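Each field is set out underneath.
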Amino acid sequence: MDRFLTEKVKKAFLVIATVALFVFILFPPAVLFLTSIKTELDALSFPPKWFFQPTLKNYAAILKTSPLIGYAVNSLIVASLNTIACVVIGSMAAYSLARYKFKGSENIAFWMLSIRMMPPVAAIIPIYILMKNVGLLDTPWCLVITYLTFNLPFVVWMMKGFFEEIPRELEESAFIDGCSPLNAFIRIALPLVAPGLAATAILVFIFSWNEFLFALILTGTKAVTLPVGIIGFMKETGINWGYMTAGGILALVPVILFTMLVQKHLVKGLTLGALK
């Protein structure tokens, strides 16, 4: 009886802790959404109003008066191109580091990861000067190349672990059947790590979609991305919280939908190799 009661208490505690954690995580997006459907007077009221007449005027206004759709297209182009480039280049580099051991190979892998650890603000000025000299400022390619510098090490490190989980015997059997190393990589190794590849691609896409600092410094008018465009609602006369929160919700929707659609691959990829 005591054991049964203890199990009940543990389950109740886990349920309460889970609910509390979800409330803590979802509270900021909930406040963001509520503010986006408030009038300017309700948004600036103190204490905050939790019961009010909702309105969609903020969404209609930003879609009509600001080039937010163009900013979203820029973000989609940059994030997609960067994700494709990172996955293609990073998977090949990770496979090489996982399969071909040589002196210093582990040091190279850690050096790649250390690039990801570097504070972005430390590299922004050299990158700005470089892009200006080659004439790529305020273009999508400028952001794609810059994001590639920081996202590629993440892809290499993630994919290296996935490739190391694949038994070497599978590829050795392919070599016996006449496969070249490239064919073994494409036909054997890559399909086996497809869930991990999908999970890594999703994370890289989200990183690129949400990036703000480089997009702010390296763009002007032509290649402005959605996070930078939303900041445009901060004027000298003040901050239009209704417009800014509505833009934030519109920026969240594509990522949430994309994550929900590929949730199965994301969970499977992140747990790949967790159990033997």
